[in-house]
Each structure stands twice: as structure tokens, then as C-alpha cells.
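Go through this pair.

…
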Amino acid sequence: MDKLKQMILSKGETREGNILKVDSFLNHQLDSEFLYEIGKEFYNYFKNENITKIVTIEVSGVAIAAMAALFFKVPVVFAKKSESLNLDEDIYKGKVYSYTKRKEYNVMVSKRYLNKEDNLLVIDDFLAQGNAMKGLIDIIDQSGATIKGMGIVIEKGFQSGGTYLRENGYNLKSLAIVDKITKKSITFR
């Protein structure tokens, strides 16, 4: 997606540790019109997969998933990262290690919202080592639902997540794949 690459180059910032900061339009301040285009792009790619729900992890994936859901006309289910009094007791639970937060946490989805009849599109903002996707795959496997596709806005192609998912047969669509990050440049595949 050329517009995404242009936005990464013009508005993104690189940080030490292979960090690509795109919080001015993707995951802190949101460019809603641009996210709408991203949602449409995912719809165009996965529209023939009979998607019944879109799944993501809070927080950064929610806006992207919601925009895609407008095109698919399906609900969004997001895995919660923290327990609360209003979370059902009967839940699916997976573990995720966050590279940027340097901690492991549980992600949870109520069993009321995923079932074996569901055809799912999993969406997230970034894919690096694939830890968030592995946690969601675990939850989805517990539910018996079928993953029909995975949509990622930005994949760090120099890390192992995309390779792992593709080698395990997942239908993965990354809108931009970054092959190299230096202090002064970003190289796309």
C-alpha cells in the first residue's frame, strides 16, 4: 500500500532497538480517514473468505479492526489485556510477550463471543516476533473457530513473526513490510 509507505516515511520515527514509531497516525493519534482506507484494503483482500467476526488485541488493533468491520458488516471481538469486574468468568485465555513493553501478560476473550461456527479475520497494527498473533491463535484454537485470514498494517520483515505464520499456513496480508530500520532510514520489501 503505497500511501501507507509514504506515511511511514514522512510521519514515522525510528528508535533504537528496531522501534518504528507511527503513533502520529496509527496507534496513539488516529488518522480516521486513513484507517478507513486500511479497513477497505483488508476488505478487498479478504472479502471472499466468508468472515463472520474480526478479532484483535486491545488497544492498538481496535480502531483498525473497527474500520475493517464496517466493510465486512461483522462484529469486532478484542482480547482484553487485563481482568476486570465486567469480564465474564468463562473465558479463553492466552499469553503474549510484548517486545515494546518487555513483559508477558494474559489476553482474554469471553467464550460468548467466539465459537466453532466463526470464520475469523485477525487484525493488528504491527507484526514483529508474532507473539500477539500466537496468543490470539491459542485463544481461537480453544474456541474451535477458523482463522480465514490475518491482516497486519506494518510487518517487521526482519523479525520472525511473518515467516512463522506463513510457514504454518496462515493467509497473511501485510500492507507494508519493513526489511530494515536504521536511525536515518526505513527500507521496505
Summary: The radius of gyration is 16 Å.
